[in-house]
Design goal:
The chain is an alpha+beta fold. It has a domain at about 5-55. The protein is built from 3 helices and 4 strands; from the N terminus they run ββββααα. It has helices at about 35-40, 45-50, 60-65, and strands at about 5, 15, 20-25, 30-35. A two-stranded antiparallel ribbon has the order 1-2. Strands 3-4 form a two-stranded antiparallel ribbon. Helix 1 (about 35-40) crosses helix 2 (about 45-50).
Length: about 80
């Protein structure tokens, strides 16, 4: 499935692989591959998403993420059961 092609601001690769995108204080978007986000930002959100994905990247990572059951988090980021 081809998606929106974007550049990862960390590794500069252009593809449609899963990313974590943050909006910076100046309003610009900062999209990074999830593994780049962990390495560059020490992002706990991406680390959690990747924890059981093994070494999956690209299309395999997308398949893994889509296969996960939905999670509901409260306003503090804690999972609601």
């Amino acid at each position: 499935m081809a998606g929106l092609m974007r550049v990862c601001v960390a590794c500069t690769q252009s593809d449609d692989h899963p990313r974590h995108s943050m909006v910076l204080g100046d309003g610009t978007e900062s999209p990074m591959h999830m593994d780049c986000c962990v390495m560059t930002r020490n992002c706990g959100v991406c680390a959690t998403q990747l924890a059981d994905a093994g070494k999956a990247k690209g299309d395999k990572l997308r398949e893994h993420i889509v296969s996960l059951p939905p999670r509901v988090l409260d306003e503090h980021g804690q999972e609601v059961s």
